[in-house]
Predict the structure of Protein GrpE.
Amino acid sequence: MDQAKQHVNDETTEVQNEAEEANNVADAEQLDTEETVEVLLTEEEKQIQVLQTEVAELNNRLLRMQADYDNFRRRTRLDMEAAAKYKAQSLIEELIPAIDNFDRALAVKVDSDDAKSLLQGMEMVYRQLTDALKNEGLETIHAVGQSFDPHYHQAVMQVESDEHEPNQVIEELQKGYKLKDRVIRPTMVKVSQ
């Protein structure tokens, strides 16, 4: 009987050893599997981070491109509005010397009836021309009595004056014009010191 017990004990010990080995193998396999899963997770996490970075960069590029496109559309619209607003500028710039000549001719004093009738005809043409230019937005820049403003006035003379404040326009030597809000030609003026 002792031998049978011994044999059972040996078999029990052997089964326990095999069970422990199987547990150890299972634990090792589980550790290997966990390590493999962790490695795979870290690789996937790295890929996810790379992809998230790429997505963020692409979103930034998209936002910049949208902003650039919006700016382009705004600039184009402003350019088109300015072109429409100032469409007559080049024609007006060419007509201003003719208006100056009309002003000089109309300032001449005449005595004969023929010259007076000719002068009346010139005044009518002058009025038609200036009315048409006013309809396009041309305005005369008034200067006498105003403070000197280099945006609207071109000082060609400075004189000392006790009657006027310093930097006040005393006399207009040549008319200045602006088209809507853009100065076409500044007024030539004499300024007090």
User: Anything to note?
Assistant: The beta strands are 138-141, 153-159, 169-174, 176-179, 182-185, 187-192. Residues 1-85 form one domain. The chain has three helices and six strands.
